[in-house]
C-alpha cells in the first residue's frame, strides 16, 4: 500500500498572479538535448541565446513582485542544427545566504523594509535583469545596481563577482546597473552605476581584456532612476530623466515615484574614454524611457556631427486640456503599463541643440534588440516585443514581435494570437551573413494552450512568415527580462576580444 501526502499549497502562491501560469517559478536546473523540433533548425545558426529573469528559489510571505525573484539564466546553444537547453540560477551572495538558511531573508519591493535602512540598502542584488557577453564570460546584472556576476557561457555556472578581479578594485562599492553596452567590434564594455549618494552616477569602460580603462563621475542634481545608456563609435550617452523616488516615502522605507514635468530630460554625452570635464549636457522634453534601440553619429548637410539616439520611451498621456496626465503616466511606469512609442533624439555637437520627435506611436513595442555588430553604428532594423493591450495579470503580456525598418519608416508585426507569451528575442547573424538582417530572431515563447515553453527561430528577412523552427522544451521558462546572443566563434575559445 502506498501513502500519498497531500501538500497544502501556501496561500501566497495561490493569490499572487506573479507566481502563476507562465510566471510560476521552476525548481530544477536541467540540461536537455534531443528536443522535439517543429520545422527545421537552420544549420547556419551557431551560438548561444541566453536570457535572464526572476525565479524565486524561496518565496518570502507577503506581496511578491515579479522583479523580486532570484536571477536565473536560460541558455540555448545552437551548434550546426543541434540544440541544448540549460538553466541555472546566478549564485549571488544573497541567494547563497538564503540557501544556507532555507528561506528568503530579503524584503521585496512591495514589502516593508527593515527599520532605519534605506530600501536600496535593504534589498537583495538578485542579478535577475540583464546579461551580456564580454571577454569570454557572461555578465549578469541587476536593474537597481550592484555587483556584476560573471558566468561561464558553456555551463552557466557562476564564476564570481566582477570586482574580485584585482584590476577592477575601483569598482568596489559602485552600484553597477543593468544595461551596459558591448562594442562587438572593439570588444569594449561600457557601463554605468547609480545610487542615492553624490555624485549619483559613474560611467566606465572595460577594455577587451577585462581591465578598467575609464571610470569617471557623472554628477547629477540628485538621485535618479536611469535604466539604460547608449553608445556610438566615439561617444557614450547617459540618461537623467525627471523621474525620482519620492524622498519622503524613501525615508519611511517604501518606494513611490515622482515625475517632474517642470524639469527637462537631460543627456550626458562624453567621449568613450573621456574625462568628467569633457561631459556635455543636452536637454530635451520631459519623458521617461527604459530601453534604447541604438545610437550612432551622423554628419548633417551643414557638416555638423549629430549624435542620434532611438529608443522606446513611455508615451506621455495627455488630459483633455492638453496638459500631461502625470497620474496616468506614473501608473503606467509603476506597473509596467503597456503604452510605449518609438522615439528619436538628435544631439547636435556643433550647436548644443537637441531635435527630437516621434518615430512611431501606432505599434506598441518594447525590449528592442538589434544586430549586435551594429551597436553604436547606424542600423536599419530593430526587433521589438509587441506589447499586448489587454492585461490579464498584473504585468503586461508580450504578445508578439515586430521588425522595424528605420530607413523606410515601416514595420512588420507578427502576432500568433492569444495564448502565446514572448520574450526579448535577440538577433543572431547567420554564418557568413551578407546583410544587416541576414540571420534569425531567437526567443522563448510560453505556449499557454499546450502548457509548455518553446524556442522560436524566425528568419529575420521573412519576418511575417513566423518561425522556421519551434523547439519544444521539457521545462517551462518563466517569463523574464533581458537576453543576448553570443556568436559561435566567440564560444569556441578562439577570439575573446576584438572582432573584425
Ligand atoms: Fe531593462
Automatic annotation (TrEMBL):
Record flagged with keyword Cell membrane: no
Cofactor(s) the protein requires to work: Fe(2+)
Pfam families: RPE65
Cited InterPro entries: Carotenoid_Oase
Highest taxon above the source species: Bacteria
Record's keyword terms, sorted: Iron, Metal-binding, Oxidoreductase
Family note: Belongs to the carotenoid oxygenase family.
Name used for this protein in its record: Carotenoid oxygenase family protein
